């Protein structure tokens, strides 16, 4: 096993790692495409493979007309910030026409923009302005269901000859004279997944809220409609899609009851009560994802760069990988499927160096070599990383995911270390959470959706003073972009920006080695560029006590390139292996040759 001192090991250890099995925390050699095989380096040639994607939550980003909600013109006003940060692409959470029962995840017209956000013309302008700055634009795509206000559903209710089978309708089962749903399936929002329609005299399926009927993907007309929607937006000029909740597209054709999960925390009405073997990750769902990919590849064939898709799946890690495509690579799926495992599901506050190691290694261990890794710290459904893992870890984590190979994803606000906001149940909008105020603090996703903190003016510069749809966090005077950009040489934002700049030089690499090590509280990630042997090493003290790197690592001559905001090092300093790294301090060095 590879217990050589860090500096010595690079190449020797590479030879070793191919042959020896890896124990948690040991130095492990990886490549950009996966684990262990150093000879199998791949050049990332497509734009998205090395891009930084920035998720914008439009309603909370920037309110241009002071009506309380962020909008497309607001995003246009802030494109300079996105460019300044060094971001390559943005993806917008849903902006489609919607009754907003579920914050835009209930769509009533797939081809139009909701008036909260603006118009199709505004979106066109946003695309033009972004493209002018070299920034690509990804739209959310919500195929799991429509709004019950959607014209298709309204027609389906009436048994319209064209739309009758657009949704999943089933007859009631009469038990002892009482009407009951066709099976035991549960909604993610609690209770039966079936709702009786007096009008149609049948039940319809809704895996989410009653107002979000599931589309019937077994009807080829529905599949064609949804493919047409993709083509419509591609023609409009978007660069790709982020596909929401795709695990739930198909259900079992025989509508079999699901077995109990055995989860003792779930009551019989709770989604977790059943094991979702007939409503999630169905074989047909994967085939459809692969078909969507074919559509994108065909569409892109004559274009100067590929249009892409990314999928949102919270399945187990082996199943998640199937959304990238088959293990053999015979069929491709998403360009990438979000890695929620490494930094969201895999880590908790107080994590150890070895847990961090394992959390990253896990993704490399499962991802087939032909697919591109991706690294995600947070999103609109998760407590902000600053709050979830601690603000003192934000710089280290931003630097870390930037030097790992592949795609980097930033949720708006992570670049300034924004923490969760303060929202009461009465102010909240998260449909599941506001149903029960006594559990709102634990369940609401409103906390991570409060307005972006731009500066120290009224409402943090989100707008001109109108009451925002969700309150601006009280922490905005301490944490805002302007103060970090202007005064903070060593601020979260400047560290983020420096890291993205450095990342540019990793782009055209024919491949590189990544080494992960864990020595007590000291986490080490090393990246060696193959073109010029530039060797970058991140030393990150994950613990609460100071550590002396030379206790674990042989001395070298190394220059500090980037460091966390709690560090006493300056850029350009010689790194002192005999000195101490403070608790949560992270220092990225380049080894002198
Ligand atoms: C940050 O400051 C620089 C230099 O003054 C300026 O060019 C840039 O636009 C600022 N960025 C933001 C997001 O304010
Ligand atoms: C139907 O009614 C009979 C007689 O009351 C009872 O034994 C049986 O359990 C009932 N079946 C169900 C499914 O409730
Ligand atoms: C609509 O069609 C379904 C399936 O054919 C049928 O069961 C139902 O009774 C019809 N509803 C009405 C109101 O005609
Ligand atoms: C791409 O270009 C080729 C050659 O001009 C043409 O035959 C083909 O139809 C084009 N494909 C698409 C999807 O436009
Ligand atoms: C709300 O949550 C509390 C705590 O879990 C529970 O006791 C109560 O029954 C819930 N109320 C409703 C209406 O579901
Ligand atoms: C929710 O959190 C707020 C802020 O910490 C607190 O004031 C409130 O009492 C909490 N509500 C409940 C029901 O726990
Ligand atoms: C990477 O390669 C592409 C294509 O050869 C080139 O356009 C681009 O400028 C290169 N980027 C860097 C950072 O060298
Ligand atoms: C660091 O550089 C100095 C001056 O060039 C040299 O004498 C020394 O041996 C180097 N140390 C290491 C560990 O390479
Ligand atoms: C660091 O400590 C080692 C062992 O105590 C010593 O040999 C070395 O000279 C020290 N290096 C520096 C730069 O002080
Ligand atoms: C993973 C997930 O639940 N995705 C979306 C699918 O639809 C529901 C209901 O609209 C949304 O809440 C989810 O965000
Ligand atoms: Ca507005
Ligand atoms: Ca479905």
TrEMBL record:
Which keywords does this Swiss-Prot/TrEMBL entry list?
A: Glycoprotein, Glycosidase, Hydrolase, Signal
Q: Which SUPFAM superfamilies match?
A: (Trans)glycosidases
SMART domains referenced in this protein's UniProt entry, alphabetically = Aamy (SM00642)
Q: Which organism is it from?
A: Sitophilus oryzae (Rice weevil)
This protein's gene is called LOC115891640
| An individual GO BP term | carbohydrate metabolic process
Enzyme Commission identifier(s): 3.2.1.20
| Family label | Belongs to the glycosyl hydrolase 13 family.
- Which part of the chain is the Glycosyl hydrolase family 13 catalytic domain? 55-449
Q: Which residues cross the membrane?
A: none
List the Gene Ontology MF annotations in alphabetical order: alpha-1,4-glucosidase activity
Which Pfam families does the annotation name? Alpha-amylase
> What is the protein name stated in its UniProt record?
alpha-glucosidase
Q: Which reaction does it catalyse?
A: Hydrolysis of terminal, non-reducing (1->4)-linked alpha-D-glucose residues with release of alpha-D-glucose
InterPro entries with a match to the protein in the record: GH (IPR017853), GH13_cat_dom (IPR006047), O16G_dom_2 (IPR045857)
Any signal peptide, and if so, which residues?
1-25
């Amino acid at each position: 096993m590879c217990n050589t001192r860090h500096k010595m090991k690079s190449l020797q250890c590479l030879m070793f790692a191919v042959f020896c099995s890896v124990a948690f925390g040991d130095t492990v050699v990886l490549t950009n495409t996966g684990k262990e095989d150093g000879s199998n380096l791949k050049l990332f040639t497509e734009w998205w493979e090395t891009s930084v994607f920035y998720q914008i939550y439009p309603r909370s980003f920037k309110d241009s007309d002071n009506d309380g909600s962020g909008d497309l013109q607001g995003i246009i006003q802030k494109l300079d910030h996105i460019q300044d940060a060094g971001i390559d692409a943005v993806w917008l959470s849903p902006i489609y026409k919607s009754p907003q029962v579920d914050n835009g995840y209930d769509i009533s017209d797939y081809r139009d923009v909701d008036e909260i956000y603006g118009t199709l013309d505004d979106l066109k302008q946003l695309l033009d302005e972004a493209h002018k700055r070299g920034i690509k634009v990804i739209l959310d795509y919500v195929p799991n269901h429509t709004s019950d206000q959607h014209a298709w559903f309204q027609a389906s209710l009436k048994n319209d000859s064209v739309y009758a089978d657009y949704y999943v309708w089933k007859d009631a089962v009469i038990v002892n004279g009482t009407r009951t749903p066709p099976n035991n399936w549960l909604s993610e929002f609690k209770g039966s997944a079936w709702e009786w329609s007096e009008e149609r005299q049948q039940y319809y399926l809704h895996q989410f809220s009653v107002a979000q009927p599931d589309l019937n993907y077994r009807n080829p007309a529905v599949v064609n409609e949804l493919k047409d929607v993709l083509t419509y937006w591609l023609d409009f000029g978007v660069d790709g899609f982020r596909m929401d909740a795709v695990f739930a597209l198909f259900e079992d054709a025989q509508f079999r009851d699901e077995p109990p999960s055995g989860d003792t925390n779930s009551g019989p009405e709770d989604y977790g009560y059943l094991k979702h073997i007939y409503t999630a990750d169905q074989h047909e769902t994967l085939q459809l994802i692969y078909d969507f990919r074919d559509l994108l590849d065909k569409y892109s064939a004559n274009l100067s760069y590929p249009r892409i898709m990314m999928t949102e799946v919270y399945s187990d890690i082996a199943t998640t990988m199937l959304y990238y495509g088959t293990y053999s690579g015979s069929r491709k799926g998403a360009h990438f499927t979000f890695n929620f495992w490494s930094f969201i599901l895999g880590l908790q506050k107080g994590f150890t160096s070895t847990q961090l190691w394992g959390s990253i290694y896990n993704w490399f261990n499962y991802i087939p070599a032909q697919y591109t890794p991706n690294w995600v710290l947070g999103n609109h459904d998760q407590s902000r990383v600053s709050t979830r893992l601690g603000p003192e870890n934000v710089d280290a984590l931003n630097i870390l995911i930037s030097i790992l190979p592949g795609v980097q994803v930033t949720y708006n606000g992570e670049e300034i270390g924004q923490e969760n906001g303060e929202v009461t149940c009465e102010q909240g909008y998260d449909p599941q959470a506001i149903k029960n105020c006594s559990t709102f603090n634990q369940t609401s996703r409103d906390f991570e959706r409060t307005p972006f903190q731009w500066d120290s003016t009224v409402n943090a510069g989100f707008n001109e003073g109108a009451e925002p749809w969700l309150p601006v966090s009280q922490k905005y005077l301490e944490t805002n972009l302007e103060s970090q950009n202007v005064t903070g040489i060593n601020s979260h934002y400047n560290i983020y920006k420096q890291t993205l700049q450095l990342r540019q030089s990793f782009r055209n690499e024919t491949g590189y080695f990544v080494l992960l090590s864990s020595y007590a509280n000291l986490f080490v990630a090393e990246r060696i560029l193959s073109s010029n042997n530039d060797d970058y090493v991140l030393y990150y003290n994950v613990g609460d006590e100071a550590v002396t790197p030379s206790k674990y690592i042989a001395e070298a001559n190394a220059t500090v390139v980037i460091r966390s905001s709690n560090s006493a090092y300056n850029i350009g300093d010689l790194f002192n292996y005999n000195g101490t790294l403070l608790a949560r301090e992270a220092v990225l060095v380049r080894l002198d040759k």
